[in-house]
Amino acid sequence: MLPFVLALPLIAVAAGLDEKAPVAVAVESTFPTKDDRIRQQAFDGDVDSAYEAARPPREGDVVTLAFDGPVLVRSAEVRGGGLDGGTLEGSEDGATFARLAEFREGVAKAEPGKNLKALRVVPTKDAKDPVAIREFVVDSDPALRRFAYPVEFVVDEVDDASLKGWADKAAKECERAYGLINDALRSDGYRPARVVRMSLKDGVDVPAYAAGDRITGSTKWFRRHPDDIGAMVHESAHVVQRYRGRNNPGWLVEGVADYVRFVLYEPANIGPIDPEKARYDQSYRVTARFLGYIVEKYDPEFVLKLNRAMRERKYSDDLFKESTGKTMQELGDEWKASLKG
Question: The domain that contains 64 carries what CATH number?
Fold first, then answer.
């Protein structure tokens, strides 16, 4: 509603060799983040960006690059500030770590030559300056997927303390889904938000809503529906959409957000649709199914085109005919007939 790491295995064969899909990662930290110097900037492939902590290290502080699965790490290098005297460590099981290298002059390098599930930076506890990590550089097989759209979801208000753990879990899942959302809603020159704030509030009458770079969820709803993290992914799609024009049909705005949620993120949860009552402009998951039909049958880039037009305030119903040769109503009738078939 507006007022406001998922990886599919894929094997591609080229020149007789198997090319393995990159393995998704998460950057985890015990430090609070300084302003917009977010965690994922430690693994975005951009040496001009960096993750920065908001305070100097304390005993037990670490920054971890955790992999979704084991990879053969041939070499690993970390560069940053406030790290001298600290160590770079590796883990084969994601829980027990062993020393790989020491930081000297802001750099630690290692050649483990074995399967690992995580790397982590352990600063020296008596360092006086906050930690900054410019980049984890990892040569591995399979490769690790860098963050093309770095983001950090910050949970800053939870009216029901018993839901704090749920909110943190939802924030992490939205971070993982952010790349998928932005790939689906990309357009030239558009830069999505890098910090998204999330809160759970009493007295909210809808499951969740998005306003600018903030998502607000209902404590009542998520107490009753703790499995509905997809609702927060839907709102994350609204954050990325950032449509400003008033000419965009509301049913289509919501339909695009639910296309991201139910066609791309969690297709198994879209649920049944009554073919007798279904209308292409019914909004949410019904419109999402309609858009999925057009993408599959007519134009794989149709949602990208819709998104770009709505973001640039150029939307017109004519876009349907330009992309498919048929009017919106003709497509709606055809789709509804396909549901009955």
Answer: 2.60.120.260
**Residue 160 token pair:** 């029901």
pTM over 0.85: yes
- Report the SS3 class of residue 155: strand
Range of the domain at 133: 23-141
Asked if 253 and 241 touch (Cβ cutoff 8 Å), the reply is yes
The Cα angle at residue 156 between residues 56 and 34, in degrees rounded to 5: 30
Q: Give me the percent of the chain exceeding a pLDDT of 90.
A: 91
Residues 254 and 209 grouped into a single domain: no
The pLDDT tens digits of the residues spanning 13-25 come to 334 445 789 999 9
36 in Cβ contact with 194 (< 8 Å): yes
Q: Which residues contact 326 (CB under 8 A, 6 or more apart)?
A: 320, 334
- In tens, the pLDDT along 310-325 reads 999 999 999 999 999 9
Give the pair of three-digit tokens for residue 272: 């049944």
The DSSP annotation for 69-138 comes to: EEEEEEEEEEEEES-TT-EEEEESSSSSEEEEEE-BTTEEEE---EEEEEEEEE--TT--S--EEEEEEE
Which residue is it, tokens 């998460």?
26
Q: Same domain for 172 and 262?
A: no
